[in-house]
Amino acid sequence: MTALFSAALLSAGLMAATGAMAQDDPATQAAQPQAQAAQNFSDDQLQQFADASQEIAAISQEYTQRLQDAEDEAAQQEIRLEANERMVEEVEATGLEVDTFNAIGQAIQQDPELLERVQAMAEQS
């Protein structure tokens, strides 16, 4: 369960890092919420999200300690970038695109039934 909540929260970070260019495009900004609201996720995608979430939670724990031990802001920024790269790799390794992962993360924050469905999938894997 904690992994899913972590992943949902971290999805905003992944989106910020990977969507920087998309944010510059007003058409993309307007289309994103509509596409996410209308999107129905397959069971496979939800399972991939659950699997990636567990890996991302482990990465987050590892890098949280490293951030706390960092000497200065520059070192923290380098650690954040490295952590984000690893999280993106984990998401892509499951077969999901980062945008889809982020959309699911946002959806489970807004839809308790979807969250329960993904939690059940995470418990079975």
TrEMBL record:
Residues 1-22 form the signal peptide. InterPro entries: DUF4168. Keywords: Coiled coil, Signal. Residues 53-94 form a coiled coil. The keyword Signal applies. Residues 42-118 form the DUF4168 domain. Pfam families: DUF4168. Residues 22-39 have a biased composition (Low complexity). Residues 22-42 are annotated as: Disordered. This is DUF4168 domain-containing protein. It comes from Bisbaumannia pacifica.
